[in-house]
Amino acid sequence: MDVSTPLEKCPALVLNADYRPLSYFPLSLWSWQEAVKAIFRESVTVVSEYDRIVRSPGIEMKLPSVIALNDYVVTARRPAFTRFNVFLRDNWNCQYCGDKYKTNDLTFDHVIPKSRGGRSTWDNIVTSCQVCNTKKGAKMPHECDMYPLQEPRQPTIFELQDQGKSFPPNFLHESWGDFLYWDTELESG
Question: Which domains does the chain have, with CATH numbers?
Answer without folding.
Answer: 7-76+167-180 (no CATH), 83-144 (1.10.30.50)
